[in-house]
Here is the input.
Amino acid sequence: MTDLNLPEPIAAYFRADRQNPDALARCFTPQATVKDEGRTHTGQDAIRAWKEAASARFDYTTEPFVLEQDSGHHTVRSRVTGNFPGSPVNLRYRFRLERGVIASLEITA
Here is the structure.
């Protein structure tokens, strides 16, 4: 990971993304939402399943390179490289934090 000074819940997310679906799901509130590829995943079980499916389909690495803050959200721009169509790609991860964990995440191009 780069030298960005990411808030701890966001840094934990990017660390967990390299580990396993359980570690990633623990980064979220019980009712959190993740929006990715036109779908919304609600709750830790759905988020765990989303990560499992993504990991089964593709191998990838994520390298955050910009952090922006606005209206209670943190947006991280990250370069994602892997064995998926269009790799590499720069994606935006828009986080909303709540009491030290992630309450929502939206991933867009």
